[in-house]
Specification:
The structure holds two protein chains of two kinds. Helices cover 37% and strands 18% of the residues of chain A. Chain A is of the alpha/beta class. In chain A, the strands form seven sheets. Chain A has a five-stranded parallel beta sheet. Chain B has a nine-stranded mixed beta sheet, with helices on both faces. A two-stranded antiparallel ribbon of chain B has the order 10-11. The chains are: A alpha/beta, B alpha/beta.
């Protein structure tokens, strides 16, 4: 007999519906799975057989063929176990007519243990989004994720016998786990903990408000990491659609979800400099898994010691920085994954960390080699480049806390709202022509910029970026797009020439 | 078949032998005609020199001695490198009384720029200079060159380079401003420790070309000679010898510039030092020189007086730009060390917007320079 059940598999960060067809016919006992299963998926044979037997049913001593359609799509992981098991139960005529009828409008997601337990899987949320079934059977631990969509009747189960019992009507459907209370605390540590360093704080605020990428250069102990960790707390809370998108990506990557299940705070990702190209950009040989750039979507990607990352990784960042998404292609499949993050990078000025100052012990070629790791085009993406130094001692002792994240976040949210009125997500996305439409440089400010241009302290591209930052500064003070010397001077100072490429000491 | 050209070629070839220093070369050239010496060595026979030099055995140079001296000289001619020996026109007169005067001197540009008839000043200092030191060196170089003083330096990074950047910056203004030629801009002179086929450090390639075009780049080693450590002190003795006044702008204690100071002292040259912040590591050298009784050098006038070119400050210093109150507070906040915007804001207790405006204006006015992202006072506003 033939049976068909619905399930799904992952491709990149999106789910793809899969029809599981099970054919049980007379013949020599055999059990084959066709339809491009990966190794984990093929091994479901042994799990499913043991789980069926452990649940008090019989495994057909006949020819069992499982086909996973569409057959051209690669099936990844163990999430199809439950659908295959249900297909075999139906095809071997161990289910009642009512059950067979009911299963047609259901979909099954879950991995089986040998004892019949239903185990959690990665990507429940995106896979659920791809399914049209009325009822969705999911592992108990993934129930919260599946319910976020509010599209299906979600039936969480912990064991195959529970599922069979509930389908037969012998037992009620198990209750979903109680929804944990949502944490109301803001994302990450608070900006109030940063003592002194008013300009570095301003840079963090401007980065959050305008979506301007931020590069912090300074010796160890200058507070680069401390500042970077606080940028997410300045970003607005994610709106429901964005939260669902971000949660979906994290679900696909099998990242642990917060207690409230929905990720509604901007994520903060801080990959280590030894991370591989694939783990940062995404991909992988058998499953296209989202990388750190996608996990940081709508949040902050923090690269500490940026100069220590391999050059291929750094250059791989250029596409997502440009387009807000990353396309990963492999021989078998390709996927476009969102990667719209705010890049906050930190690096030492030279290998010893004390560069520029007279404490520095590095030779000229050493410094040049170190700085050459960050390519010019990548450096160009940073609207905000700031040198931070260890604060003066009395500043550290000063006990008055700075402004809190919550109060800065209010201003940031207003600036973001204004950017949306201009038709972009953030001011950093404004093109030169749009900048002309929504801002006016007054005469003294224009003179200031022209002088910097004439003296070679500013490039043509830099001029546009400085204007965008000046507009963000103007938005932050509640201005009307009238850019004066005050905001232009600050924007210029926020883009100090770090001289990472041309450390020319003597200028003619 | 001896000729003067053979001797010249042999001298050039001898000067390029590995490990050949100026005094050994000089005593070799003095002992016999260089062409005969070369022939002896090439034939594998020893050459006996006056003490303290040991007998020279050809074996130590067997590879280098296979070269043809005429071809070596021809390569210099083709590369446009001048070759002069003591007594030749163009050989700097100030080197004539040197105990170890170079037996041969290579030049790009016009070696007469180093002639004794031009007043000259040597400006030297550390490679790890601050914006203050570079600003002072650049201003000294520019003003002195414009008033007809030859600026001699070593073309190293930092102070040396800054002095020549200054000295080569006035070429157009100077010549155009004074067509009579009475107060011509003096050509700069650089003395380097390597062959003139390469520029070391590479970053100064353009600067080196400018110096050669306006004045001269000199070396006592032939093309192909690499910048070896032991050649730098020898280069320093030529810098000290080529100018009656030596100005040390910035130098750490025990820096290479202090070696140049000793060489200048030995020759009875006037040594001047640029005072610097007592907190700056690279002003320790010049400040110590001041304590030891050297004359201070505040500006080009001080140097001109030391050279006997004028007896009084010209008083023609450009009027200082009037600073605003904010700018004055920011300049105070620097305390003559590099600072970030944060540090300036904290020290001056001014709002960020005012700090930014004041800094932007100070940078535009040249009183402050941005370097490696931090800011430094330049000491020499435009």
């Amino acid at each position: 007999m033939l049976a068909t059940t619905s399930a799904a598999t992952m491709c990149g960060i999106s789910g793809q519906p899969v029809r599981v067809e099970v054919h049980v016919a007379s013949g020599l006992p055999a059990y084959t799975i066709v339809g491009l299963p990966d190794a984990t998926c093929r091994e479901s044979r042994d799990r499913v057989r043991a789980a069926i037997l452990s649940s008090g049913l019989t495994f057909p001593q006949q020819r069992v063929t499982v086909n996973l359609a569409p057959s051209g799509l690669r099936k990844i992981g163990a999430g199809l176990d439950l659908a295959i098991a249900m297909g075999i139960v139906v095809a071997s005529e161990q289910a009642t007519k009512e059950v067979v009828q009911r299963i047609r409008s259901m979909a099954f997601l879950g991995e089986l243990g040998l004892d019949g337990a239903v185990r959690g899987i990665a990507g429940t949320l995106p896979m659920a989004a791809a399914l049209d079934a009325d009822e969705l059977v999911v592992p108990m631990v993934n129930a919260g994720e599946a319910e976020l969509l509010a599209r299906h009747v979600v039936r969480p189960v912990a064991h195959l016998t529970e599922l069979l019992g509930a389908l037969d009507g012998k037992a009620p459907w198990p209750d979903p786990p109680p929804a944990p209370r949502r944490a109301e605390s803001p994302a990450g540590p608070d900006l109030a903990h940063v003592r002194g360093q008013p300009f570095a704080r301003l840079a963090a605020e401007v980065a959050a408000a305008g979506g301007h990428h931020l590069l912090l250069v300074g010796p160890p102990g200058a507070g680069k990491t401390m500042l970077a960790e606080r940028v997410p707390s300045l970003l607005p809370r994610l709106d429901p659609d964005a939260a669902l998108e971000v949660t979906s990506i994290h679900s696909a990557a099998a990242e642990p979800l917060p207690a409230g299940r929905l990720i509604d705070q901007p994520p903060f990702r801080a990959p280590h400099q030894t991370a591989s190209m694939v783990s940062i950009i995404g991909g992988g040989s058998h499953a296209l898994r989202p990388g750190e750039v996608s996990l940081a979507h709508r949040g902050v990607l923090f690269m500490d010691e940026m100069g220590e990352f391999p050059a291929v990784v750094l250059d791989g960042l250029r596409q997502p920085l440009e387009s807000g998404s990353i396309r990963v292609s492999r021989a078998q499949a390709s996927a476009t994954m969102p990667a719209g993050f705010l890049l906050v990078a930190a690096m030492n000025p030279c290998p010893c960390g004390h560069g520029g100052s007279l404490r520095c012990e590095c030779s000229e070629p050493m410094v040049r080699r170190y700085r050459r790791r960050v390519s010019g085009p990548l450096l160009d993406r940073f609207d905000l480049r700031l040198v931070v130094d260890v604060p003066d001692r009395h500043q550290l002792a000063d006990s008055t806390p700075g402004e809190s994240s919550a109060s800065v976040a209010c201003r940031v949210a207003q600036v973001r709202a204004r950017a949306r009125q201009r038709g972009v997500a953030a001011n950093s996305r404004l093109a030169a022509t749009q900048l002309d439409e929504c801002s006016i440089l007054d005469e003294p400010a224009r003179a200031m910029l022209e002088r910097a241009l004439d003296e070679g302290r500013l490039s043509g591209r830099g001029l546009v970026r400085v204007r965008a930052v000046a507009l963000t500064l103007d938005d932050l003070r509640g201005g009307d797009g009238h850019l004066d010397r005050e905001v232009v001077a600050q924007a210029l100072m926020l883009r100090t020439e770090i001289d990472l490429r041309t450390d020319s000491v003597v200028r003619a | 078949m001896m000729s003067i050209d053979d001797d010249l070629a042999a001298t050039v070839a001898l000067s390029g032998l590995p490990g050949m220093g100026p005094s050994r070369l000089r005593s070799m050239v003095a002992a016999d005609a260089p062409s005969r010496t070369w022939e002896r060595l090439a034939a594998g026979r020893p050459v006996v020199l006056d003490r303290p030099f040991p007998e020279i055995r050809a074996a130590e140079w067997s590879d280098a001695l296979r070269a043809d001296p005429a071809a070596i000289l021809a390569r210099h001619v083709v590369a446009g490198i001048g070759v002069v020996r003591p007594g030749d026109p163009g050989y700097p007169g100030r080197l004539a009384d040197e105990h170890d005067a170079p037996a041969v001197l290579f030049s790009r540009g016009d070696p007469s720029a180093a002639d004794a008839q031009h007043p000259a000043v040597a400006i030297v200092g550390t490679r790890r200079s601050t914006a203050y030191g570079e600003g002072v060196a650049r201003a000294l170089g520019a003003e002195l060159a414009a008033s007809g003083v030859t600026v001699v330096s070593g073309l190293a990074l930092g102070i040396d380079g800054a002095a020549h950047v200054g000295a080569t910056s006035t070429e157009v203004d100077g010549e155009g401003a004074d067509p009579s030629g009475a107060r011509r801009v003096a050509g700069p002179v650089a003395v380097v420790a390597n062959g003139l086929d390469v520029v070391y450090p590479r970053r100064h390639r353009d600067l080196s070309a400018r110096v050669a075009r306006l004045g001269a780049v000199l070396s006592e080693v032939p093309i192909g000679a690499r910048p070896e450590r032991w050649r730098f002190p020898l280069r320093n003795r030529l810098i000290a010898a080529l100018a009656p006044v030596l100005v040390v702008v910035e130098s750490a204690r025990g820096g290479g510039s202090m070696h140049t100071v000793r060489e200048a002292d030995d020759r009875g040259r006037t040594v001047m030092a640029v005072p610097g912040p007592v907190t700056s590591v690279v002003s320790v050298g010049p400040n110590q020189l001041l304590v030891d009784g050297c004359a201070p050098c505040r500006d080009a006038d001080d140097v001109r007086i030391a050279l006997g070119l004028s007896t009084m400050p010209s008083g023609a210093r450009a009027p200082r730009r009037q600073s605003t109150l904010d700018e004055a507070a920011i300049l105070d906040a620097f305390a003559w060390t590099p600072a970030t915007v944060d540090q300036l804001a904290e020290r001056s207790r001014l709002p960020l917007a005012q700090v930014s405006i004041a800094l932007a204006d100070l940078v535009a006015a040249g009183e402050v320079v941005a370097r490696a992202g931090a800011f430094e006072r330049s000491g020499t506003p435009r």
